[in-house]
Amino acid sequence: MAASRFTSMSNRVLTRSLSTRLQGTVDRIRDLPARFGQRPYRVQIVRTRWSGGQRGAGVEEAVWAEEILPTPRLSDPQSLSEVVSYAGLEELGSLRVDRVSGRYGEDFLRGIDETGVPTSPDTSLYYEITFVGRPAAERRRYSLAHAPGFDAAGFQWILLLERTPSTQAPRDRSDMIGVVR
Length: 181
Prior knowledge:
Layout: H1 11-15, H2 18-30, H3 32-35, E1 41-50, E2 60-67, E3 73-75, E4 81-85, E5 88-92, E6 94-101, H4 106-110, E7 123-131, E8 139-144, E9 149-151, E10 156-163
Antiparallel strand pairs: 1-2, 1-7, 3-6, 4-5, 6-10, 7-8, 8-10, 9-10
């Protein structure tokens, strides 16, 4: 049997595939719950820089943020629990985020820049979830618990995020999205 009768996956084959061509349609359908008000939150990837030359040293400043669109689904937010700490109540636990558009790449979701460089020692990368339409909506920080998983049949990425304790003051709610300073 000749091997040429079978498809050997490559970037060229993938970019021409039916799955890739349908991604835009899937994303438009996936946006419907947000339009209906059933996803009253925003999910962003945020990169910050520390003035002291390393994570946790000095003043943290947001240098880049991008909202994940269409708005993905948060699964099992009840898995988070509140515990009493010296700073008051802290949320702990993990959160599954799925239906993240397949148009994103793994490097982007992991915080690796276009040149293949991961976050430097003086920067932090995290996911930020903000529930909107509620008084005093807090921006909650999460980090990736493991590498993003791609579900090709579901046209989606699946993320497992771990709640990051708030050691810094929350970002100002008026911060712009997608702006590099």
